[in-house]
Amino acid sequence: xxxxxxxxxxxxxxxxxxxxxxxxxxxxxxxxxxxxxxxxxxxxxxxxxxxxxxxxxxxxxxxxxxxxxxxxxxxxxxxxxxxxxxxxxxxxxxxxxxxxxxxxxxxxxxxxxxxxxxxxxxxxxxxxxxxxxxxxxxxxxxxxxxxxxxxxxxxxxxxxxxxxxxxxxxxxxxxxxxxxxxxxxxxxxxxxxxxxxxxxxxxxxxxxxxxxxxxxxxxxxxxxxxxxxxxxxxxxxxxxxxxxxxxxxxxxxxxxxxxxxxxxxxxxxxxxxxxxxxxxxxxxxxxxxxxxxxxxxxxxxxxxxxxxxxxxxxxxxxxxxxxxxxxxxxxxxxxxxxxxxxxxxxxxxxxxxxxxxxxxxxxxxxxxxxxxxxxxxxxxxxxxxxxxxxxxxxxxxxxxxxxxxxxxxxxxxxxxxxxxxxxxxxxxxxxxxxxxxxxxxxxxxxxxxxxxxxxxxxxxxxxxxxxxxxxxxxxxxxxxxxxxxxxxxxxxxxxxxxxxxxxxxxxxxxxxxxxxxxxxxxxxxxxxxxxxxxxxxxxxxxxxxxxxxxxxxxxxxxxxxxxxxxxxxxxxxxxxxxxxxxxxxxxxxxxxxxxxxxxxxxxxxxxxxxxxxxxxxxxxxxxxxxxxxxxxxxxxxxxxxxxxxxxxxxxxxxxxxxxxxxxxxxxxxxxxxxxxxxxxxxxxxxxxxxxxxxxxxxxxxxxxxxxxxxxxxxxxxxxxxxxxxxxxxxxxxxxxxxxxxxxxxxxxxxxxxxxxxxxxxxxxxxxxxxxxxxxxxxxxxxxxxxxxxxxxxxxxxxxxxxxxxxxxxxxxxxxxxxxxxxxxxxxxxxxxxxxxxxxxxxxxxxxxxxxxxxxxxxx
Length: 859
Prior knowledge:
By secondary structure, the protein is α+β, with helices and mostly antiparallel strands. It is 42% helix and 21% strand. Helix 4 crosses helix 7, helix 17 (415-425) packs across helix 21 (596-602) and helix 25 (652-666) packs parallel to helix 29.
């Protein structure tokens, strides 16, 4: 067989797409391509007739069609697409048959920065196709993987598996050829092989190989084409879990295993398929925490000295990893003391990450791998060990801890393990051979309607294999609309699906009933990108910082997390059927991700304790996420273009969030009012500043409003805007807290912040304030271009330390600039000129670098 390109490479460029592309991924391209226009219309009509308005709207967006009042007019617009586009929809629909589960899983896993689509499988496929046709090849690869029976599972014995090398196995031609040749040789030079396709997502490398099993002509209506029948072989490398699963013949399995071991530089140990449950939880815990005197077998285990142990989590603040190590001495006395002092604990088997021991057989590392279902596998670096000595070590490990090596161990006896099981059940659609515990949890979740067991039915024509989706049995036609088939057949299966409304209801109930110091004040739907998230807002009796609980069963992309951070509100993100390790939140520190399983298993009584724990974590990160949000806001405003404004890529909501982030970073005593006071006579928000002047503390308050102009003509502060602004100021000037705080007993001013003003508005707004404010108030109308606000923030950030050394001077002069009415960069420069003058600084800075230099010279 000649060398053949991997499909991913062959069709990397859209210009290379041909009929072969569609045939390769199982689409009846030729039959669809040869259809007359009237038949294309008929088939597409049948497909679109089954789609509701939300799903049709997703197609409308993808084709950039206008707005439509009803679904029929939208369908008519889709029927008028170019013939090739209509045929494309038929091909994608044909490709989608029986692939919904794989499609949903793949679509959720792919990192997409733009809008996502979740109402229609057809829209998801069209979106992926527009991004790159290679996505369909990768999805086809995952579909074959999902529909092939479970294979053998192996685990690497080394800690670090080179991800770059694992990717090369799939991506690089020389690696493909070497794997192909190894398999050919392992078959006794009988079977030809080809690396057909691959998919790399979430540090998982999936490779599909084809084995040729025949080469003969096949009867055909037109001619008898040569047919080289193939059988698929697949393997999946999971870098995070350090595992490999191989779905293949036994002869291929050995060859693939040897190839991966030599290429990735680590032995692969086979995992026994039967889950180990025959252990005692207390005995296992005590064998770790009281290892000097306790073993699982009850006997002393000799020639097995553990000198290093590593824990994944601890009871310490923020639950850091802890490693205890002694120079070739038994570590257990140190572990016992650390446990007594509250430094370490064992809440789950997965808390034990690794141990290192010495014996007459040499030093070895045993580490644990956590599987998606929460179970754990312990594996050992067994390089250069013969089978007898390997067996001896396995026996010593079992005698010491009561659990085996190289076997999946159930974590159900621990609460954390139970929580993992709940999360696992929220991710799957079917459960095969459930354990007694999983069965009990599943029954409980279904009883509470958190999981729903649905009868999944689909209808198809046995003659042309076209599939149909009908919501009601009476909608099913007697004959196929697309061919001469005289009947429609039905298939059914039970599937488990998450009821997000019930999850939300459970958490809301606990917020209402089980919290001691938090109070549920509001709930709403938060739109983050194209995803709508249910949100609960809470206030605390003692802490000013509010809190929101956001609940999602979606994998949030980086852009969505950026938007959450932009809101600058501490957020507990409850992930339903998602894994925390899949998303890196390190740059989005206003978000604390938690899994629903933990909330569910911990129970009602501990919910208040969990809330305090999570909110404390968020409080310690307040300064970090405020600065991060302000930096994002500065960049966001700076990158705003006329196109973004005209096409509502950048909206007034974004503008309000960005402005507040900048103000909050400069004036920490600030508050933004959004939906909490929607429809009320209040402005966008307020901020306060305080400074010393003439030996006295001056305290001043400003309100502000954001005015985003999108037409390039300047925001029109018309009569209606003037009236609203005065009402805002009169309302706030009557507020007891503002009157008490301000030494002027009122707002000093109301600031209009815009990207573009109409200069004639300055006089008219000022005059309106003068004429219509209550007689006892003299609050001013102030105008601040957002570019000047960004300039102010840029200089504030660059010179923060020096400003803090002269903060009274800075805020006093800045107050005077604001009160001038129209703020510009020249007036801001004057503020910084004085604030950064070292001769005027109220506090001095120690030249630490000079101290360091002198010490270096001295020693």
